Amino acid sequence: MPTVSDVAARAGVSTATVSRALNGKPTVDPGLAERVRAAAAELGYQPNGPARNLRRQEAAVVALIISDVENPFFTAIARGVEDVAHEVRYSVVLCNSDESAEKENRYLDVALQERVAGVILSPSGPGTSVAKLASRGTAYVAVDRPLPGADSDVVLVDTRLAAREATAHLVAQGYERIGCLTGPSGVRTADDRLAGYRDALRAARRRTAKLVRRTEFKAAGAYRATHDLLARPEPPDALLIANNAMAVGALQALQERGVRVGRDVGVVTFDDAPWAALVDPPLTVVAQPAYELGTEAARLLLARIADPTRPPTATTLGARRIERASSSR
Questions:
Q1: What value does the CA radius of gyration of the chain take, rounded to a whole number of Å?
Q2: pLDDT digit string (tens) for 90-124?
Q3: Taking burial as the number of CB atoms within 10 A of a residue's CB, which of 20, 266, 273, 297 is the most buried?
Q4: What percent of the chain has pLDDT over 70?
Q5: In degrees to the nearest 10, what's the CA dihedral of 111, 115, 120, 121?
Q6: Between 290-306 and 72-87, two packed helices, what is the crossing angle to 10 degrees?
């Protein structure tokens, strides 16, 4: 394997000049820098990324802090991040915050202690703060949810629009009493999906308040909330469900009540989990590009690591509705 010394000898410069030229330092004469790059290309020299990071007292590691490692949506995001990081020989440390601000904060502290090169974070709520990362110059990117009050790189899905279109689909199918199961107040994705649901019902001149339940983004919370809705004198005849984990709890409650999906009640849920097409009837879903969220977040983080001064980038991806039997009359 060629070394820095080999490149320096080929280009007729010092090893320090090679290092500065290959790291894009503006103090190197452009003609000299081009000569160094040409010599490196001729020799097939590849900089040692981990060693370079260690000289900067950083590890060739990025931390990914997500809300729920059991949720296939976040698992797909993690795979996207890992695939991009692997291409440039970075490792990924996966941290599960469980929607807990305390756990999230602890993982941010660990990321700083371990001198990771950067952090990709799905914020747990309005209390999330990355001030400690910013103060240490650690690169960070928000994924799935924006960082409250922070001007940062972020990759999102337009879930308000997706929820509005999903609810409008249920309206068009003839459902009259459409309920919504969504996540905790203050969590951007939960708030946006509720807002989109309300947008569609207002456009259709339908009432909404009594058929909304907010709970944790978990099966257990959706199970309780569904039982509560079904106990009403006028229970919903359709449900918009904010994620696939909640869908599991809602389906269990519907089954226990003897309510038939696709006949007695229409169902649309966010996220196309692998099992969604296998249940009877198959579920209509709002499929979010989770893997692409991960790959784009990783690319933005690597760009931020390479150039901390670049302007923040906000990327919004679209979701698509996959219609199956659970939402058709």
A1: 25
A2: 999 999 999 899 999 999 999 998 889 999 999 98
A3: 297
A4: 94
A5: 30
A6: 40
Q: Single out the residue of 74, 242, 90 nearest to residue 143, CA to CA.
A: 74
The structure tokens 């979701």 sit at: 319
Cβ atoms < 10 Å from Cβ of 22: 18
26 or 327, which is more confident: 327
Tell me how far CA of residue 201 lies from CA of 171, 188, 194, 280, in angstroms.
8, 20, 11, 28
Q: In DSSP terms, which residues pair with 320 in a beta bridge?
A: 287
Predicted local confidence at residue 47, as pLDDT = 65
What's the pLDDT band for 55 if we cut at 50, 70, 90? Answer: very low
- Residue 121, CA distances (Å) to 33, 76, 104, 284 in order: 37, 14, 9, 29
CB 60: neighbour CB atoms within 10 A? Answer: 18
Tokens of 287: 């499929």
| Cis peptide, bond prior to residue 146, ω within 30 of zero | no
Characterize the bridge pairing of strands 320-322 and 284-287. Answer: antiparallel
Residues 6+ apart with CB under 8 A from 41: none
